[in-house]
Amino acid sequence: MVKTMDIGLVGLGYIGKIHANAYRNIPVCFSNAPVTANLKGVLRSQLDTEQVLMDSLGFTLRTINPEEFFKNDFDMVDICTPNILHLEEVEMAAAAGLNIYLEKPMAMDLNEARQMTELAQKHGIKTHMALVFRYVPAVRQMKALIEAGAIGEVYNFNARFFHGSYVDPNRPMTWRLRWAESGGGVFADLGSHMIDLIRYLLGEVVAVKADMRTFISRRPKSRGSSEMETVDVDDWLMCLMEMENGAPGLLEVSRMAAGVEDTTRVEVFGTKGALRFSFNQQELVDIFDIRTNRWYHGSLDVPPVEGERPIETLWPNGKYSQGMMTNAHMASGYDFLLNIAENKESKLDFAAGMAVQEVMEAGYQSARSGGGMVRLPLA
After folding, report:
1. Are the beta carbons of 148 and 154 closer than 8 angstroms?
2. Which end of the chain is more exposed for a tag (fewer CB within 10 A), N or C?
3. Rounded Cα distance, 68 and 4, in Å
4. Which residues of the chain have pLDDT under 50?
C-alpha cells in the first residue's frame, strides 16, 4: 500500500518552491512509489502573495502563526527559511515531536547547530539536511569507486563551486549579504554543499586554512535606491583542507564568477588514477586509469554504496527529469520520507549538518586570523 505523508512547509520562497515541486512530482517520476507527499500546511511571513501557487499545491492550512502551524500532526516539517530563523523553528518542531527536514546551512554558528542536534536527540525525532549534492548519480559513483579502491590511495583533491549571481554591483542587499541574518556568505551558502560532498567522499576534515574576500563592500539598500548598505559577508573564499586519511585538498567557492551561472567541479587524484565530475554531467563520473593512460566516461560497473538506497530508485530517469536542482531535492526529500515510513534514521541527519557547520566555523576563524591553520574538532 502507498503511504501518504503529511508535510508542513515553512517558507515558500525560491527554495521552498523547489522543495514543493519536488514533493509534488514524486508520483510522476516514480510510478510505484511506496510513499507520496501531501503538502498539508504552509507557514509564511505573509499570505497575500502566491495565492494561485498555494491553491495548486493543495495547502489546506495557510498561516503566519507559528503556534497554529506547529500544533498540527505533520509527518514531517520542511524548513526553508533564512538561516537566522532555523534555531527557533527547529525548537518549535522538536518540542511538538515533528520530524524535521532542514535547508542548509544548518545554523548561524556551531553553537546553534549543537543545540539543534541535542534537541533532536532529546525529543527522539528524525532529522535530515538538504545537503543534496550527495544524491547526484555521478557523486554516488565517485564514492563507490573510491571505496572499491579504483584509484588506489587518495593523494589530493580539488573542488570548486562558482556562481555569477552577485557580480552586478547594483544588485540590492538581501539577508544573504548580512552576517547578522545569514551567519556567513558564500562559504555558508555554497560551501556548505561542498563541505558535505567532500566529507561524504573522503571522510572527516581535521584541519583548515582559509582566505576570504568581499569584493563589493556596499550595495543599494533596495532595488533602485540611492541609499547604500555595507556588505559584511564573504563573496569568495578559498580553503585548504587536510583530511583524516592525510589527503590535502583545495575548496574554492565564489558568487562573483562573471559569465558563470552554476559551475561545480570535483577532482580526486590517487595512486592508480583519478576521478572527476561536474554538474554539467550529473549522471556519470569520469575515471582516469594509469594502466591504460586513458580517461573513460560512460556506463561503469560500480557497486552500490553500502547502506544506502540505490540511486536509481531516488533519481528520476532522463525521460522524467525535472532539472538538476529539482531532481537533487526530490531524491533527498524522497529518501527522508522513505526513512520516516520505514522508521529508519537518516545518514544525513543533524549530526552531519553540525559536522559541516564545524568546518565552516573553522574556515571563518582561519580567514579572520590571517589564514592560520585551525585544527578540528573545535573546542
Report:
1. no
2. C
3. 22
4. none
CA distance 150 to 273: 8
Give me the count of residues in the chain.
Answer: 379
The three-state secondary structure class of 373 is: coil
- Amino acid letter for position 293: N
CA distance 192 to 235: 14
Nearest to 38 by CA among 24, 52, 19: 24
Axis crossing angle, helix 191-202 with helix 350-368, rounded to the nearest 10: 110
In whole angstroms, how far apart are CA 276 and each of 131, 157, 244, 280, 371? Answer: 20, 10, 21, 12, 28
pTM over 0.85: yes
- Beta strands 205-213 and 294-297, pairing class: unpaired
Please write down the long-range contacts of 228-231, taking CB distance under 8 Å and 24 or more positions apart: 229/173, 231/173, 231/177, 231/178
| Residue-wise burial string across 303-328, b where 16 or more C-beta atoms lie within 10 A, e elsewhere | eebeebeebeebbbeeeeebeebbbb
Q: Could you report the per-residue pLDDT of 313-323, keeping only the tens digit for each?
A: 999 998 999 99
